[in-house]
Write a structure and sequence with these properties.
- The complex is a heterodimer of chains A (184) and B (209).
- Chain A is mostly helical.
- Chain A has helices at residues 2-15, 19-41, 44-61, 71-95, 101-109, 116-129, 134-144, 150-157, 161-183.
- In chain A, 28% of the residues are buried.
- Chain B has three domains: 3-50, no CATH class; 83-140; 143-204, no CATH class.
- Chain B is rod-shaped, with a radius of gyration of 58 Å.
- In chain B, helix 1 packs across helix 3 (31-49).
- Helix content of chain B is 76%, strand content 0%.
- The mean pLDDT of chain B is 78.
- Chain B is mostly helical and 209 residues long.
- Chain B is built from nine helices and no strands.
- Chains A and B meet through helix 2, helix 3, helix 6 and helix 9 of A and helix 1, helix 3 and helix 5 of B.
Chain lengths: 184, 209
Amino acid sequence: MAEDSNDFQLIKDFISGNESAFNKIVLKYQQKIYWHARRMAGNHLDADEIVQEVLIVLYNKLKDFQFKSSLYTWIYKITTTRSINYLRKRNLKQAFSLEDNETKLEMSKDDIVLDLESKEKLEKLENVMQELPLRQREIFIMRNFDEMSYEEISKITGKSVGGLKANYFHALKKIMELMKNYEN
Amino acid sequence: MKTKDKILKYIDNSLDENEKIQFEKELSNSEELQKQISNYSSFIKDIDKLKNVKFDESYFAETIPKFRSRQEISHRFLLFPRISLSLASVVSVALIFIFTVLIMNKKDYRQKSTSVIADKSVTNVSGLLDPSADQINLGFMTNEESAKFDSTLNIEMSKELDLSPKDLSYLSPDQSSDLSSLLQNINENDANDIYREVLNQKFFGRSSK
């Protein structure tokens, strides 16, 4: 609640022309935006691009924010939408072979994860998650990484709790199978 | 419900109380089920560990400056087409205005010319062509114009009548007599001769002499 009122004040300051209020909002939520984008995209470079796109949307639309949800939920929703749009564009580019294997190699080189063991595990999981349909991936990330309840996910995605559960179980089963195949 | 679905719901804590009690009974009696549960649980734990990997935090210090510089570039990028569009609009409007003015002026000029010609024909030309008038009305001419008109008329007449310089001296301006006094000195026979000569020259292209 206190966090919400702080966010409210920051938004009010930003609308009244205080640019540093926007910087404060970014500093507060940038890591959450990055990691959600990264899990959706599966690599650092794409996540970096998505973060910038999210910030542009945030900057342009913050004045229209109506406090119907928390700022975090709203930012999360924007991040999810931008990630999905970005990935669709990326898939289209890949379909027309505008990205080759060298680009993928460069993507894996450029990373912010320091620990080599964690990096390997993360890459493995990221690669496996890329095999999931976008909506299942989205729910899997929200449930497992962001520890959201089905009700919270429902608010963000607009899907029913029953449908979300079914999607999540499909995703979990598929990831388990893919991980086994990946290890073998 | 399939066993796999039950396992997933159990791990996800999505079973209701009765289902949970019943599943735990099954679990205590089945080693295979316990093994499966353990696999899923360890997988979930592995994912948990990946939530908090060590990363280079300095990367996040670059997020805002990067955003601001991009914002500046996009502003500039947006400004150029805007300026171009504005300039193009202004030039188009100016061109349309100039063309409209030119067309209007041309129309106006044509109308004025027509009305001037109409006026002239009414006031001057009609006077000239008035069959009931005794003399050609040259009152609208200046002295210079009148002299020029006389000399042109003389030249044309001399050509027409094939006059010799001597004959022409009758018409020369240094003679004190004007056209009307000359005509008064011509008798009826001379006038008939002149008339016939003019007709021959004019219509048959030959001289009767």
